[in-house]
Every structure is written in structure tokens, then in C-alpha cells.
Design goal:
GO terms for molecular function: glycerone kinase activity. By secondary structure, the chain is α/β, with parallel strands linked by helices. Helices cover 48% and strands 18% of the residues. The radius of gyration is 24 Å and the shape is globular.
Length: 541
């Protein structure tokens, strides 16, 4: 039984974990209950950890600190989807615990697992249980107990795996949708695959990476976080250079009462905060008790933050010099949608969305190309928001994520963008506008499923209203008519129909005519979106 590991051992363990998730990614994908063809958990986790494996293969005989820091850095930039971001946070916390160590025993390994859990929970203000978070938390707790009994790393890791299996089996009871479908959480199972593969590598049983694998279509990550009402208007961000021994957890508690969407990163020398609140003055007044502020200017961001960022980057992307105060980048798929956003004044388009969640690195590169001091990011997909939120700490630019969950929300946000306004004014106006638009989408069922009372067959048309399944049918016209009647009854006055790459213009025009006839008091517009997977995206305001 192995007592300790070094950097080379960690390297093999991580590469083995990446190979296992790649091998099992389709199995993880199939755990998604909602059968629409969106960004899959397995694919997102695989692409995230594979970014680290690729960098580790270039690193010969690394120290433990080097191997873990390379892993954390690569996964931070390669993170895709919510599951990928959480996986990267777990590894980031582990790297923090392993910093300064040449070897790792059972006690330190248990501490590293717990640091990973802490990093993930701290970054997410309202974590959802019955997910990868729960599995990782309980596994880390068991590892700590085991380390007090036996300090051999292999013994501790075995205990973590045993508890992860129990925790994973229980996720079906913690999430009502999982319970109804009779499946466990996909992200949690992915973490278990990673832990088991690490043990195999530790025992000299490396898992061979599959050759000639073909990327599968991605699907929306099932283990999303609970939706939050858009209530608070000010997106407030600041960095405090820590002074004294004040506990930042007290600041976290204060800010949690003051607003929502709180992310507080306590990184030894600095405290970095992102919070949505109606009283930013109160947030700043409380925060100054913990140290002096660092102004969010490019020069000061470089002074306080770039050294730490550059230590994690082997090659920094080019950063455009600011020529204006505010710029915007948007995520979308489809040439028509790209044209829509460009015409509305977006500075950069990030290709991606439903079928390919862009990584944090993809978003970072787009942000750095914008010649502006502050860059607003429109994710336009709930599974991309977390990846976008990681960008701010990787660039000297000030990055603000407008939490748009759909393309129509992103369009509405841009209609409320004022290039002459301040960052605060635009953040408030654009964020408030998100709640004014209803989004409808029509796609197809990627597999058979029994979901929310609907008996779904592969190939059926699916209508989605907001985030809920509205209806299913083998006739798309039936669903379009039902949606039009729903819009009519809601009293919405402006309807925009974006038709996808698989819809001919003449058929799209008939759809527009249908909505015009059923909603005679509404202004109906038809635009070519060219988006894949979704035959129609429809907004109603």
C-alpha cells in the first residue's frame, strides 16, 4: 500500500482520471434526464480535465507543487459548463493545499480534498446538494476521518472512494427530478470515475487513453444551480489588499445578507468580491474594514493581480489596449444570430452555445481582444455563466457577466446597452431587462425519456417555454400554435422569431404568419438565426 506520492505520481493520477472520464463520458451524458441535445456533463467534464492532462504530458518529472498548479491553471482556462467549472474548482483547491510540498501523505491528501470542496462551495453562493458538490464533500470528510486512523495515502483515498459511492447513490434521493427518473447525478459520477482512476494509477494500473474518439454533441448540464430571481441591480466588484487578521467569513455573511450572486475569493493577500446588491455603498463601507481598496483600473489590476495570473499562464494572450470605456462580447451559434448581435454593437462573438459550451479560455481570448477598459459578457446560456465568471481574475480588464440564459435575453440586454453610459448604469439596465423577455424554443428529443409527465420518444419535437418543457408532438405545427396561443394569452406585444439552419425561409414565414394571426395585437418580426439544434427561438416581450 502506497504511503506517499510525489509530483510524478500526481501527474499519472491526473492523466488517468482524464482518460477515465473520456472513456465514460457517453455514460455520463446519458444520465441527463432532460432529453434535448444540449451541453452534456460528461463531455464538459472530459474537455475540462483533458486540458490539464495535455499540459501535464508536456511537463517531465514535475514537482508535486508544479504538477498540481499546472493542473489547476489548465482546468481553470479549459473549464466548460457548470460541471467543468466545479471540477476545476475542486482541483484548484487541491493545488492550494499541495503548494510548497514535495510529497503528500494521507493527512495532506485528505486536507487537499477538503480544500477542493471549500473552493467549490465558496465560489458558489447557493450550492445545490445532490450533485458533484455533495459527493466531493462527503468523500473529503471521510478521507479526513480515515487519515486519523491510517496516514497512508492509498488507505485514505480508498476511504474517499467508498464514501463517494454511497454519496452518489443517495443523490437520487436528494434531487426530486433525479428521483423521478431513477438516476444518480452525472457530475457526481464523473468525480467518482476520476477518484477511481487515480487509485488505479497509484497502483500502477494506468487507464489507456482511448484512441480516435469522436466528439459527441453536448447537452445542457443537468446539475445546474438553482435559478435566482433578478432582484438586485448593482453588480459590485472590488479587490481588497488584506490588512490585519479580520475573518473574511464575517464579510461573506454581511454581503450575503446585503445581496445575491455573491462570490468571495480569499486568496491570502487579497480578498476579491463580486456581489449583486442595491446598496453598493454599504458593501464598500464594510469591506474597507478588512484592508485598503485596489482601484479597478488596468494599471492597478496589473499591479495587484497580474503576477499571480502570469504565474499560472505559460503563454498570455494578447490584450488590446483600451480605446473606450465599455465593450461587449456575446456567445451564440449561427451566422444569423452573430449578425444580429454585431448589428446591435457587440464587439466580439464567441462561437458556442447549446451544442458546444465555450471554455473559460475561449471567453478570455474574446475579452482580451476588445479595446475597452471594461468588457460585458453575455453568456446567453445558463450552462456558460459559471465559465464566464472565471474570466475576471485572468485578465487585467474589468469583466462583468450579464447573466443572460438565452439568446433572446442577450438580444434584449443589448437593446438596453448604452455605450455612453457608465458600467454601473449598463449593468443595472441590462440585468433588469432580462426578466422582461419570455423565451420559447423548439428542438427535438435526442432519446426516449419520461420527463415531467411527458412520454417522450426519440425524434419528437419538444417545445420549451423558459426553462420548462411546454409540450411534445410529432407535428411541429401543433407546438407552434400552442406557443402562439400562450403568448397571446400573456398579452406580450413584441414577438421575434429566429429560425434555425434546418428551417427554410418559406416555412419560417408561415410560422410568422401563424403568430401574427393568433396574436393580432402583437408586432411580429422574423429573423434568420441559422442556429443548430433549435428549429426556432422565439422571444416575447
Amino acid at each position: 500500500m502506497r504511503e506517499i506520492i510525489n509530483g510524478s505520481d500526481f501527474r499519472r493520477m491526473l492523466i488517468s482520471a482524464a482518460a477515465s472520464i473520456e472513456i465514460h463520458k457517453q455514460q455520463l451524458n446519458e444520465l441527463n434526464v432532460f432529453p434535448v441535445p444540449d451541453g452534456d456533463t460528461g463531455t464538459n467534464m472530459s474537455m475540462t480535465i483533458s486540458a490539464a492532462a495535455a499540459e501535464l504530458r508536456k511537463t517531465e518529472d514535475p514537482s508535486l507543487e508544479k504538477a498540481s498548479s499546472v493542473t489547476a491553471s489548465a482546468m481553470l482556462r479549459g473549464a466548460r459548463g457548470n460541471s467543468g467549472v466545479i471540477l476545476s474548482l475542486l482541483m484548484r483547491g487541491m493545488a492550494k493545499a499541495l503548494k510548497g510540498h514535495e510529497e503528500c501523505d494521507g493527512t495532506l491528501w485528505a486536507h487537499a480534498l477538503q480544500e477542493g470542496v471549500d473552493a467549490a462551495y465558496k465560489a458558489i453562493m447557493k450550492p445545490t446538494e445532490g450533485t458533484i458538490l455533495t459527493v466531493a464533500r462527503l468523500a473529503a470528510s471521510k478521507a479526513a476521518t480515515a487519515a486519523r486512523e491510517n496516514n497512508y495515502l492509498e488507505f485514505v483515498h480508498e476511504a474517499a472512494i467508498a464514501e463517494a459511492k454511497v454519496a452518489l447513490a443517495d443523490t437520487v434521493n436528494q434531487n426530486p427530478v433525479l428521483k423521478k427518473a431513477g438516476v444518480v447525478d452525472a457530475g457526481g459520477k464523473g468525480w467518482l470515475f476520476a477518484l477511481e482512476a487515480m487509485l488505479s494509477a497509484l497502483r500502477g494500473e494506468d487507464i489507456a487513453a482511448p484512441e480516435g474518439t469522436v466528439e459527441v454533441k453536448e447537452q445542457a448540464d443537468f446539475s445546474d444551480f438553482a435559478d435566482e430571481d433578478i432582484t438586485f441591480t448593482y453588480c459590485t466588484e472590488f479587490i481588497v489588499s488584506r490588512e490585519g487578521d479580520s475573518d473574511p467569513e464575517d464579510l461573506r455573511a454581511f454581503l450575503n445578507e446585503l445581496g445575491d450572486s455573491l462570490v468571495l475569493v480569499d486568496d491570502d493577500e487579497i480578498i476579491k468580491v463580486h456581489v449583486h446588491t442595491n446598496d453598493p455603498g454599504a458593501a464598500l463601507h464594510e469591506a474597507v474594514k478588512y484592508g485598503s481598496f485596489v482601484t479597478v483600473k488596468i494599471e492597478n489590476m496589473r499591479l495587484q493581480h497580474t503576477e499571480k495570473v502570469m504565474s499560472e499562464q505559460e503563454l498570455a494572450p494578447k490584450i488590446a489596449e483600451p480605446e473606450k470605456p465599455i465593450g461587449v462580447v456575446s456567445v451564440c451559434a449561427g451566422s444569423g444570430l452573430a449578425d444580429v448581435f454585431s448589428n446591435l454593437g457587440v464587439d466580439g462573438i464567441i462561437s458556442g452555445g447549446q451544442t458546444m459550451n465555450p471554455s473559460t479560455q475561449d471567453i478570455l481570448e474574446a475579452v482580451n481582444k476588445v479595446p475597452a477598459e471594461t468588457v460585458l459578457v453575455l453568456p446567453n446560456n445558463k450552462n456558460i455563466i459559471m465559465a464566464a465568471q472565471q474570466v475576471d481574475e485572468l485578465t487585467p480588464k474589468h469583466v462583468v457577466v450579464i447573466p443572460s440564459k438565452t439568446v433572446p435575453q442577450g438580444v434584449t440586454a443589448m437593446l438596453n446597452f448604452n455605450p455612453e453610459g457608465t458600467v454601473e448604469e449598463n449593468t443595472e439596465a441590462m440585468t433588469e431587462s432580462l426578466s422582461t423577455v419570455d423565451t420559447m424554443q423548439i428542438t427535438y428529443a435526442a432519446r426516449n425519456s419520461d420527463f415531467d409527465g411527458h412520454d417522450i420518444h426519440e425524434g419528437d419535437y419538444l417545445a420549451i417555454y423558459g426553462s420548462s418543457l411546454f409540450g411534445t408532438s410529432q407535428d411541429i405545427k401543433v407546438l407552434l400554435r400552442a406557443l402562439a396561443e400562450k403568448v397571446r394569452d400573456s398579452g406580450k406585444e413584441f414577438i421575434t422569431i429566429y429560425y434555425g439552419e434546418d428551417i427554410k425561409e418559406k416555412h419560417a414565414q408561415k410560422t410568422a404568419d401563424l403568430f401574427s394571426n393568433i396574436c393580432p395585437n402583437a408586432d411580429v418580426n422574423l429573423l434568420r438565426g441559422g442556429q443548430p439544434v433549435y428549429y426556432y427561438m422565439i422571444s416575447a416581450e
